Prior knowledge:
3 helices; 14-stranded antiparallel sheet
Amino acid sequence: MRFNYxxxxxxxxxxxxxxxxxxxxxxxxxxxxxTSQAAFNAxxxxxxxxxYTGFSITGSTPSPITRSAGAYGxxxxxxxxxxxxxxxxxxxxxxxxxxxxxxxxxxFGPSISAIGANFFGSDINGLFQSGSIALSLTDSFGxxxxxxxxxxxxxxxxxxxxxxxxSLTVEAVQPGTGFLWPTVDNLTLxxxxxxxxxxxxxxxxxILGFAGVGFMTYRRRKTSALAA
Length: 228
């Protein structure tokens, strides 16, 4: 079997670039996006959580609001109107009064370099509704975006930056019919470790890329030896 070394080299380079980008070591220094809460926890320290205990689910709450997650304070703002608690009294969620409004978290104190939560959608009655949620994080290096397709109440997304996080905006991707309200639970603020810990899928991609590089080196050495 004959190998096209040019194509193989290109494939390896692309895989390596994807792996590097996935762990946030890119030219743009994008924040690392975690879809596993365990992996996010392993990449952060000094975490504080706001599970919205005591948040009203019987009426609207004027925006903006100031709350805390452990030792961290923060502000949350609904885009145009007010907040409305979803979920139940025992387990309230933060949501908006208007479906098309976004929720923006900002004004963190002390400053943070990691943020995560359960992000999903709810219906007009404040009950869970399947749908997609778009997230936009701004940090010292710029913008990092991520969309959760068909989010559930257990859908966790975390961002870890090597810089300072200034804001996170959450909005519901409106369905073709009806409406979807952006909803957040268990907001987690933390400090990212100096070196972020990649998720297992990222490690697998990196190992594949490194193995390919090793194979290429071996083949080239063998060819050189035969030529001699």
